[in-house]
Each structure stands twice: as C-alpha cells, then as structure tokens.
Design goal:
Strand order of the largest sheet of chain A: 6-7-8-3-9-10
Helix content of chain B: 10-25%
Strand order of the largest sheet of chain B: 2-1-5-7-9-11-13-15-17-19
Helix content of chain A: 25-40%
Distance between the termini of chain A: 27 Å
Shape of chain A: globular
Low-confidence stretches of chain A: none
Number of domains of chain B: 1
Low-confidence stretches of chain B: none
Oligomer: heterodimer
Largest sheet of chain A: 6 strands, mixed
CATH topology of chain A: Rossmann fold
Number of domains of chain A: 1
Mean pLDDT of chain B: 91
CATH class of chain A: Alpha Beta
C-alpha cells in the first residue's frame, strides 16, 4: 500500500534520512520507535509531502502510484493524513468548523460528534469552543485525533499522539487507532510508549535516519531496549549494531 | 418611529447584501437610529434609552442616554450610511451610560456605492459606575474603496464599569481609515478595544488605540487583527499606560501580509507609571502561519482554501 523506497533527505546541510525504506500494508499498524532526533518526524513530514521535505533520492509509492512530487493537499485527497505532535491552534475557528473541514473531501460515515466521543471529549462541551490557546495541550491533541478520524483516511500518520497525554487518556488514543484500522486505514504510528507501540502489527527501530530493524513489536522493542536506549552515539549508528541486530 | 423612505429601503437593502438582517431595522423592540447622509430616516426609543438628535448641513449630532439601572436586553442598532457615490457624513455622538446600566450597540456603516465619501465619527462615551457597554461597529463598503473612515472616540469608564468595542471593516475595500480610540479607566474598571480590518487594493489604514489605566486594579486589552492584500498598507499603534495600583494591560497585534506590495507596521507602546502596574504585549507581522496552512492542507484543503479559512478566523 505504502512503499517508501530508498529515500534520502537533506535539510539545512544535514542528511536526516539515509537510504530509508519502509513498507506498510493495508489495514496495518506500523509503529516507529526511535530516540529524539533520529528522524521520526522528518519521515512523517516527508511521507505527507510538507514543503521543505523533498527527498534527494528515492521515491514514495502509494497504492502503486508515485506520489513523490505531489503536494500535501493532493496526498490528503488520495487518503493520507497526518496528526502533528504539536498541533496548530487557530484563532476564530471552532472545533465544529475544524472537524467539518476534515470531512470536506471525504464521505465519512462518522459524525463529528462521534469523533469527539471516541477521543473522550463531550461534543456539547467542545463543539462550539475555539481551537485556540484556551485548550490544554492534551485536549488539542485529542481533537487532532478526532479530526483524523473524521476524515476517515486510508493512511493515518500519527506523530507521537501519546506525548503530553495523561495516562488515563492513553486508552482513548488506542481506541482511535483501533477505530482507524476498523474503518480500513493503515496507521503509521510514531511513539515512545512501548505500550502503544505494542498495538502494532510491525515495528521499526529508527536511528540516524535509517531503519535499523523491522519485526514484531516484541522483537523490535527488545532490540530498542538493548541497543538504542543505552546508545551513546545517537545519530551515529555503529556498524556492529546494524550487523548484530 | 421609523420613517420608511426610499433611502431607508436602499440602506436596508445594502445592509442585507452585506450580511445583516434588515428586519432588525423594523423591529420595534430594538432601539434604533438610522442616518443616511445628514438625514435621520428612523429613530426608535425604547424604555431606558433616549436618543436626542440635531441635524447639521453635513451630518448629525446625537446624544444617546441609557438610564441608570436599565438593562437593555436587545442590541441597539445605529445605522449610518451614504447611498450616493459622493458625500460627507459627520456623526457627532455622545453616549451616556448611567450607573448600573447594561447596553450593547450594533453600529452598521454602509457605503455601497462610494467613490468619494468621507465618514467622520467623533464622540465621547461615558460608562457609568458599575455599568457595561458593548459597541460593535461593522463597516460595509463597496468594492472600489473611495471611503475615508475617520472615527475618533474618547471613552471614560467609571469605577467598576466595563467597556468593549470592536471595529470591523472586512467587506469591500477599506479605503482610508484613521481610527483613533482613547479609553480612560477608573478603579476596577475594564476596557477592551478590538480592531479587525481587511485591507485590499491601495487601502491606507492607521489604527491608534490607547488605554490609560488610571484606576486601581483597572484592566485593559488592545487587540488588533489586520490582513493586508495587494498594495494595502497599515500602521497600528497600540498604547497602554499603567498609572493605577495593580493595573494590568496587554496589547496583542497581528498583521498578516498577503500581497507582495502590501506593507505593515506595528508599534506597541507600554508605559508604566505606577510600579505595581504590569503591562505586556505581543506583536506578530508576517505571512499566514505555515503550520496552520499545512494542517488544513493535510485534511485536503488547497493552499488558498487553507489561507482563506485562517484569515476568516482571524477576522471573525
């Protein structure tokens, strides 16, 4: 469904992604584990097609079409979307309007009320509120997930949806991920939470812009604990790590 | 009562085209003053609201009083406009909101055919002890500009009073705008001054809003949202002077520049005279926030649609 083939990306004269390849199958949850600064968000932005995240080499195939040169909006219309780690806030835009905009180009079967309920926010309390600084960080992140749900994408890229979220709310995040898959989406899940990563069908460990290992969540989490957590050479993976993985 | 003349119909029609509900202008439950050029087309006083008026060759002088202890539930409509392409309209308005009163004014200023029109608004506002007044002024201009908008108000808020005004000029071309509001606050009073303007073509906009926090624990907010397209230019001066003990003030100015030849400047000025006063400001000038645009595009909106949504929100 999604084939990331040998992509490299340089930003501000630093090579961030290095010959990276990744495959995601339909209706699959694929989690990415990696320390800070290893290129996880860059990978997410590159797949989404953000300006400034144009690959130097390689290509991205989506449903067998090369989307490497497409804009964000074109990728979104083809069913890809992204939930940012720190979502933007909008002055003068209500949560109702934002969720409605998410459904503008889709035939979503979920109502915006249902989307809010699934992230644990009461529609009557939230729909008319502004999507602005009056929301806490956790509330804003949950609304971001509700908007991804509202869009009913084919591929949802979730960039650390669980960061800055209280422990009780993690269940809502997991529910949203399950709901996305139930509706037929693949999910690329970037997370630091092993508990959330464990939901995945496959997990990849990312270091210094390369995929070090892909496998079951258990295998990769074990690898991550043994090799990445104690790693003192962040962003400079040793050959033996790659060879002995 | 309302005098239903042809001009009234034209003004009501222009008001409807610009998004207002013309039925509001005929509703006897609403306080109303409707002025076209230098003619008073309609006036409706309701219990607690007195509107005294006097005509000039080029405008109208009005004294609007809300009696003490009166809470006017429905907004009072003040409708000003010039239907012909050219003319001068001078409105001299003095508002007296007596003690413990509450009122909200909706002022509509409509110039649908303007080629060379000067709209001068000068006045004073006295918000009495523990009273609340809201003044929302919305302009509806034609597409060609051709209007000089010159509003100048001095606002005095007495102890425990609250005043809030919003000047909104979004539809049509702004023309020339010279907005000059000054608010003087007594003890425990509050003033919030908002300006939302969309400048296009060669619009020339100057916004000056000042709040003098003279009273103990007085509070003031100056907030402006200016969007500039084409060759429009804007200069925003927000000013807060903290003289009262424990007074608090904030300036929040945002100008979005969309045209390559558009120009924006912002000058926030804070002056602390009393050491316990605390004043803050934030000012941002530039293009629309990139992350906001990308977020909306990731939901399938085109770049232009995303920018339009963001701009509409800022001006809402």
């Amino acid at each position: 469904m999604l084939e990331v083939k040998n992509i490299s990306l340089t930003k501000d004269q630093h090579q961030i992604l290095k010959n990276l390849s990744l495959s995601i199958n339909p209706v699959e949850i694929h989690s990415i584990l990696g320390m800070n600064g290893t290129g996880k968000s860059t990978l997410a932005y590159t797949i989404m097609g953000l300006p400034g995240y144009v690959v130097d080499e390689g290509e991205i195939l989506w449903r067998e079409q090369n989307i490497t040169g497409l804009s964000i909006a074109e990728r979104a219309k083809s069913g890809i979307t992204l939930a940012w780690q720190e979502p933007a806030r909008f002055e003068g835009l209500t949560i109702r309007e934002y969720l409605k905009l998410s459904q503008k180009h889709t035939n979503s079967t979920l109502s915006i009320e249902q989307c809010l309920e699934k992230v644990g926010l009461e529609p009557q309390k939230y729909l008319e509120r502004g999507l602005d600084n009056t929301l806490s960080g956790g509330e804003r992140k949950r609304i971001e997930l509700a908007s991804v749900l509202a869009m009913q994408p084919r591929l949802a890229i979730l960039d650390e949806p669980d960061s800055g979220i209280d422990a009780l709310s993690i269940d809502y995040i997991k529910n949203v991920i399950r709901e996305l898959v139930r509706a037929g989406a693949a999910v690329l899940l970037i997370t630091h939470h092993e508990e959330v990563a464990a939901m995945a069908d496959h997990t990849s460990a990312l270091c210094a812009g390369r995929i070090l290992k892909t496998g079951t969540p258990e295998e990769v989490t074990r690898f991550f604990r043994n090799h990445c957590r104690p790693c003192l050479h962040i962003n400079k993976p040793l050959d033996e790590v790659l060879n002995n993985g | 009562m309302v005098d239903f003349t042809n001009e009234f119909e034209l003004l009501a029609e222009a008001y409807a085209v610009s998004g207002g509900n013309p039925l509001d202008l005929r509703n006897e439950q609403y306080g109303l003053m409707l002025v076209a050029g230098n003619h008073i087309l309609g006036k409706n006083e309701i219990p607690g609201l007195r509107i005294e008026s006097e005509l000039f060759p080029d405008g109208v002088k009005a004294r609007i009083t809300v009696a003490a202890n009166t809470k006017i539930e429905k907004p009072v409509h003040l409708c000003f406009g010039v239907i012909p392409a050219e003319g001068i309209q001078r409105i001299l308005a003095d508002f007296f909101i007596e003690e413990n009163a509450k009122v909200s004014f909706l002022a509509h200023c409509t110039f649908p055919n303007a080629v060379k029109i000067q709209h001068i608004m000068e006045g004073t506002i006295q918000v009495g002890k523990n009273s609340q007044m809201e003044y929302n002024e919305t302009h509806f201009h034609g597409p060609r500009g051709g209007v000089e908008v010159l509003p100048k108000m001095k606002i005095n808020v007495e102890r425990g009073g609250q005043y809030s005004s919003t000047f909104r000029l979004i539809k049509g071309a702004a023309g020339v705008v010279r907005l000059d509001y000054e608010a003087y606050l007594s003890d425990e009073s509050v003033a919030e001054l908002y300006a939302k303007i969309f400048g296009k073509y060669k619009d020339d906009i100057q916004v000056k809003e000042s709040i003098y926090l003279n009273g103990t624990e007085s509070r003031g907010l100056v907030k402006s949202r200016i969007i500039l397209a084409d060759e429009a230019r804007a200069e925003v001066l927000g000013e807060v002077i903290g003289k009262g003990v424990n007074s608090r003030g904030h300036i929040d100015c945002m100008e979005i520049v969309q045209g390559k030849k558009a120009k924006a400047s912002a000058v926030p000025r804070l002056q602390v005279v009393e050491e316990s006063s605390k004043l803050t400001h934030e000012a941002a000038i530039g293009s629309v926030d990139k992350r906001q645009v990308e977020t909306l595009m990731a939901r399938g909106l085109s770049e232009q649609e995303a920018v339009d949504v963001i701009v509409r929100g800022l001006l809402k």
